Amino acid sequence: MAYDLKKEDEVKDYIENIGIEYRFGCYKEQKPEVCHLLADYLEAIKKDFEKAAKVYKSNCLEYKFGKSCLKIGNYTLIGRGREKGDPAEALIYFEKGCELNDPGACLHAGMLLTATGPGVNIQRDVPKGYNCLKKSCDQNDDMACHYLSGMYLTGVPKNVQDFNPHNPEKNKNIDYLIKPDKKEAFRFAKRACELGNMFACANVSLMYKKGDGVEKNQDESKRFFEIAQSLQKAHETTKEIKFQQGLDGK
């Protein structure tokens, strides 16, 4: 049946039929991809976050669909579709998604496992978190590569309380889980930049300028600065277009 999407009643019928098709594909045909679409439909169209959460969770644990693990992880982290957030439970879903090779789930798992500070109720496990971030970066997630670059730039102290960002000389005498390594920091920053991370491009520019982890090169510094500016403008343009079109990014 062809729908006239200029007519409100036909738009409503079209939307309802999409929901019926997704339910059939998920519950009857048991297709994980369609179950994820059903959850997206419940989230974006119906605004029923509780039901969406149930579908994402089931699709993650029963059908082993990595993208759904990422979504239910995010829901659990921020408390969407439930009373309150639970980072420790969210980590379970992120780790499951990472096992299923979803780069976003690996990124979130890695960040939670290496996080410190008030309100963090997760046992810090930097080696495990590093492996999650590395897996995500290897799957071309720009934020994971950027995060790894930062870890190598400052190092990851065994005891966070011993680290003083304003006293580099004192930091030389503390124990590190990951020692500062400017060359590795540059390598991951450049990879993140290649994947379109404007902050990483700005860091690469600065590292070329200062000779951190790479030989000084003013021409390359200028080139990467221009790349960072170009990516920033593209990002601002995209945000403006989304605003004008009424789009709500996930």
TrEMBL record:
For this record, an example GO cellular component is: mitochondrial intermembrane space
**Family annotation (InterPro entries):** HcpB-like, Sel1-like, TPR-like_helical_dom_sf
Transmembrane domains' residue ranges:
none
Family matches, as SMART domains: SEL1
Gene3D superfamilies linked:
Tetratricopeptide repeat domain
Which lineage do the record's taxonomy fields give for this organism?
Eukaryota, Metazoa, Ecdysozoa, Arthropoda, Hexapoda
What UniProt keywords are attached to this protein's entry?
Answer: Repeat
- Protein name (Swiss-Prot/TrEMBL): Cytochrome c oxidase assembly factor 7 homolog
Q: What's this protein's family per the entry?
A: Belongs to the hcp beta-lactamase family.
